[in-house]
Amino acid sequence: MTEVAYNEETLRTAEGGRAARTKNKKNQNKKKFFNRTYFIYLAVLVAVVAIALVVLWNVLADYESGVPTNIMTRIAENIEAGTAEKIYKEWDTIETVEWETADGNAAYLNKNFAGKEITFEPKRGEYLSKAPVYALKADGEEFAKVSMTQANEESEFGFTRWDVTALSADHELKIQVLGGITPTVAGQPLNEKWRTETGTAVKELESIPDELYSNPTYDVYTISAMLQMPEIAGVDSEGNGAVVLRDDKTGAVTLGPGFDTELEAAIAKRTDEITEQYSLWMTDNLPWSGFNKYLLKGTPKYEQLRTLEVNWYTLHDSLHTENKKTYEFFQYSDDCLRINVYYELCVYRGSQETRYKTDLTLYYVLDKGVWKVADLITN
């Protein structure tokens, strides 16, 4: 009896052990399944977050790259670093005038502004939110401006894109061209689209009556939108170089026909003679009848000088001129030209010297084969 009971108890214990092991195995299988599912979920979650971060980064980068101020920062950094060519590579939408090139402008920027502190700010009077324009400054001095327009296509993520359309300066240059001259800019013939006036009267000759000479006229070209101030020249119909004069006050350039050096020498000699006689007349050492033969009758200047009191330098013993030189000879036409002359008139009273520095422009008109003064301007 005892043995049978023992066997039954042993059997129950064995069956209980098997049941416990089976339960433990099931629990372990459940735990492994849970762990596997958890890690898969966690991996998927990490992947989703990583993808979201990458997308967010790309979205932010896409947005930042299109902000006008960020565009300006990249432009300023490239100029400062001497790598302006990268600007023209990144924004091939930058337009240049026909006599400038991207490579030439990049070289100009690198040469003149690399190493300086480049800053920018909205261009006063030109900036619009829909068409931003920024002023570029080098060490605080404005040297160029950047213009942008909204691109036709949006960015990858739907943000507004901006095209850089111009990197230029506020240069505007007026070129006055006498008949028969073809203007050139940086060695290239200037396109007719830049012509703003035709048959314009020569302003400095306006006081001379039309009937006294051929009354030459200008064509006026006004160029702008360039980054650099270009070299201006010209040629006539035979390929001869034009004479180039630049007005120091206005910056305007005048192109006239080439001239005969013999004529220039003859006019310089005549100017020397006339200024000597002018000095004598102005100091009351020469009568009007001795001076007026050099002047063209019928002009306002003739009448003005005829009625002018000339006893300004009285009570003197002697006088002479020194340091005389002629310059800027310019021929408007076959019968009209000008020349500048500088000299010092030295007037003596005893041992006292009074020195008058004199700078004149003489406008000549050919009258019956003789060059006469049609106007005389004190500079």
Q: What would you note in describing this structure?
A:
With 379 residues, the chain is of the alpha+beta class. Helix content is 34%, strand content 32%. The protein has helices spanning 2-65, 68-81, 85-90, 102-113, 261-282, 288-291, 300-306, and strands at residues 118-122, 133-138, 141-150, 162-168, 172-178, 182-185, 188-189, 195-201, 217-224, 232-235, 243-246, 253-256, 318-333, 336-349, 352-367, 370-378. The strands form 4 sheets. The chain has a 5-stranded mixed β-sheet, with no helix packed on it.
- Helix segment tally: 7
Distance between the ends? 149 Å
Radius of gyration: 43 Å
Q: Tell me the strand percentage band.
A: 25-35%
Low-confidence stretches: none
Strand tally is 16
TL;DR of this structure?
The chain is an alpha+beta fold and 379 residues long. The chain is built from 7 helices and 16 strands. It has helices at residues 2-65, 68-81, 85-90, 102-113, 261-282, 288-291, 300-306, and strands at 118-122, 133-138, 141-150, 162-168, 172-178, 182-185, 188-189, 195-201, 217-224, 232-235, 243-246, 253-256, 318-333, 336-349, 352-367, 370-378.
